[in-house]
Specification:
By secondary structure, the protein is mainly alpha-helical. The protein starts with a helix and ends in a 17-residue tail after the last helix. The chain is built from 3 helices and no strands. The chain has helices at residues 2-20, 42-52, 79-88. The protein has a domain at 64-105.
């Protein structure tokens, strides 16, 4: 009789104990900081690591991304064309800001 009472007790109390646990609150970031290194690629990051002779703080970043594009006027992108492509999703020619390859804004 004693074992069956303990078994019934477990069947009744165990589920209640599981529900009694507090739900974990999901924490969302308060702010997000977007750093865009102009003219900065993996070679420049490696040069910084080599010059510093130690890890850089950028290596602690949990999320990184790369943006690769060429202008419509050549192979090497200047800051203006790169920023336009990054912000609008449209490639443009070097020296242009906020317009597409046909000079339409």
């Amino acid at each position: 009789m004693k074992k069956s009472v303990q078994f019934i007790y477990l069947l009744l109390i165990l589920p209640l104990a599981c529900f009694a646990q507090k739900e974990r609150k999901i924490r969302h970031p308060k702010n997000i900081i977007l750093l865009i290194g102009d003219g900065m690629g993996t070679a420049q990051i490696f040069a910084g690591i080599a010059a510093n002779k130690a890890p850089l703080n950028i290596e602690r970043s949990k999320v990184i991304g790369f943006h690769k594009n060429q202008p419509t006027s050549g192979f090497i992108t200047d800051s203006a064309a790169g920023a336009t492509a990054f912000a609008t999703g449209e490639k443009t020619y070097n020296g242009a800001i906020g317009v597409d390859k046909d000079k339409k804004g």
